[in-house]
Amino acid sequence: MKKFSLLLTGILGFALVMTSCNNQGKGTSNGALTSNAAERVYVAPGEHDEFYAFISGGFSGQLSVYGLPSGRLFKVIPVFSQDAEKAWGYNEETKPMLNTSHGFVPWDDSHHPDISQTNGELDGRYVFINGNNTPRIAKVDLSVFETTEIIEIPNSGGNHSSSFVTENTEYVVAGTRFSVPVPQRDMPIKDYKGNFKGALTFISVAPENGRMDIKFQLMMPGFDYDLAHPGRGDSHGWFFFTTYNTEEASSLLEVNASQNDKDFIAAVNWKKIEEYVNGGGGKKMATNYAHNVYDESTHTATSTMKKEVLVVDPLEVPGAVYFLPTPKSPHGCDVDTTGEYIVGNGKLSADLTVHSFSKMLAAIEAEKFDGDAYGIPILNFEDVLAGTVKSGGLGPLHTEFDGEGNAYTTFFISSEVVKWKVGTWEVVDRQPCYYSVGHLMIPGGNSRKPFGKYVLAMNKITKDRYLPTGPEVTQSAQLYDISGEKMELLLDFPTVGEPHYAAGIAADIVKARSKKIYNLSENEHKYGIQTDADVRVERNGKEVHIYMSMIRSHFNPDNIEGIKVGDKVYFHVTNLEQDYDVPHGVSVLGANTAELLIMPGQTESFVWEPKQVGVWPFYCTDFCSALHQEMQGYIRVSPENSNLDLSWSLGE
């Protein structure tokens, strides 16, 4: 009996080995359950991922950086929300970045990142991303992975069809989701129809330094402008925006904005409008919006309030704007790699509508119009239709392209990614998502030259996919291999906030530009210091300024006396390190702010207002050396009427 058991065990073991060997290289419908899938997303210790994925945080207001194929989280870049880890929006240098015409706004809803392009290919210089609630566009500099500019968008509400860039990053667009009175005024909401306007804002980007500026705002009819994409190739010079609520309803939109069989894609010839504006066209409108810029030399942000914007009436530029009828309540607006095909993802349509750019031009030339909307010509649907993807799924949202003639579309209601052929419109594959997929991303999939290889699906609901964490479960992304004829699920990984949208790029393009330190000799911060000889503490009435240095493993000074209750104490702290990846932190007991996290060669400041007499410690909050625990100091606070003079020391 014992011999039989050993023989049976051996046979079963051999069978398992053979099954495992046979599965290698095949993959199965179980995708991530196979060892083959695990191997394909595994990045060995010390090796790097092939792609960066920049995934928006939605309601978190931030932008997260992941590696693909591993799904590892590398960094959360603070953009529209305060971030205690990096003191973003807490320290004195970055507070101005969150300034708006409505005051200091420390939260927003970040949705659509897009990477800068040159000749229609991703160049890895910047990521642009929109803030929805208080309309803003931010620029993230990928040499430092930090937000360096935020511009507020006036005359807008729900800044959704943003932030997408033209082929040479001439412009970033910011289209309003909610049409509003322009200029804003007190008026009955019931008078919405015909009176509200939808602003499409074109923000110029300076080629030498990326500086943004509002070039013009196109004042469109009062629809909801949902998403957008630029033309490329022959369609370069055009921008395409989906619209819904062409009914112009202001209440119960789930019913009242779903009446029309077709809404529109707005085709905007920005080259024509640019020429009109450069020739003196358009009107200056008084307004108020913030333009916030972080200066890398001074390590400090400034906020400037702008007082006017140039607005353009589309009727003043004949031939600049047309409407393409598109079923029904379209969401995504996506242009293929050639620039010929414009995909309208109608949320309430079972089919996927694809328009032809060349047919659009022919219809315009032949004046094949089906009426107009507020004076803007509506093209005949059949005259601009390239084809229809039949039986795609339910609830199409977003399409991207792999550069091999294939398109991939998310279907929210049927929770799947569908692969189809561009030109024949044939569905060739479909894979389920878990669950309720919104947008997807192919690295470079919205450019002339996609990198292909993977599709990343971003899901709104996960339910049983992860360990439970109370009523709210993490949202997630799922990675599919698209290198073969059939898609294969490789990996699930949790995301920060809502993974609303993403942009991906080959890592080698970005790595080559990555900055390792801030050069101390180039530090022009108003309160920065170069050496320990510059360390000092100065009083100006009730204001005290501490010019402090930090280096492994001490602060200078580390003992400070003469501070009084009621003083406003500014810590200006410079990290003297010039070694890659050696930041230092600082926090003082009782400070009503976040800690500072200061990069090598950088200066940051925070304010401490002591309210109690005592001796209060401060310390380094970022583990930096074997003597990190010893990196600490004390600050003495005396009564308000004390006559104790300021003094400071190190090593005494």
Please describe what this structure looks like.
With 652 residues, the chain is mainly beta. 9% of the residues lie in helices and 42% in strands. The strands form ten sheets. It has a ten-stranded mixed sheet. The chain has a six-stranded mixed sheet with strand order 41-40-43-44-38-45, with no helix packed on it. Strand 12 (197-205) and strand 13 form a beta hairpin. The chain starts with a helix and ends with a strand.
In round numbers, the mean pLDDT is 93
Uncertain residue ranges: 1-33
Coarse shape: globular
Helical amount: under 10%
The strand order across the widest sheet is 6-7-8-9-17-18-13-12-11-10
Structure classification: mainly beta
Strand content: 35-45%
Spatial gap, N to C terminus: 82 Å
User: Which radius of gyration do the C-alpha atoms yield?
Assistant: 28 Å
Biggest sheet record: 10 strands, mixed
Write a concise synopsis of the structure shown.
The protein is mainly beta and 652 residues long. It has 7 helices and 45 strands. A hairpin with a 2-residue loop joins strand 6 and strand 7 (121-131).
List strands and helices in order, with pairings.
Layout: H1 2-23, H2 35-41, E1 51-56, E2 63-68, E3 73-77, E4 99-100, E5 103-104, E6 114-118, E7 121-131, E8 136-141, E9 146-152, E10 161-165, E11 171-175, E12 197-205, E13 212-221, E14 224-230, E15 238-244, H3 253-256, E16 263-269, H4 270-278, E17 283-295, E18 300-312, E19 321-326, E20 330-335, E21 341-346, E22 352-356, H5 357-365, E23 369-373, E24 376-379, H6 381-384, E25 385-389, E26 396-401, E27 406-411, E28 416-421, E29 427-432, E30 437-441, E31 454-459, E32 476-481, E33 488-494, E34 502-506, H7 507-511, E35 536-540, E36 543-551, E37 554-556, E38 559-564, E39 568-575, E40 584-588, E41 596-598, E42 603-608, E43 614-619, E44 632-638, E45 647-649
Parallel strand pairs: 13-18, 36-39, 38-44
Antiparallel strand pairs: 1-2, 1-34, 2-3, 4-5, 6-7, 7-8, 8-9, 9-17, 10-11, 11-12, 12-13, 14-15, 15-16, 16-19, 17-18, 20-21, 21-22, 22-25, 23-24, 26-27, 27-28, 28-29, 30-31, 31-32, 32-33, 35-36, 36-37, 38-45, 39-42, 40-41, 40-43, 43-44
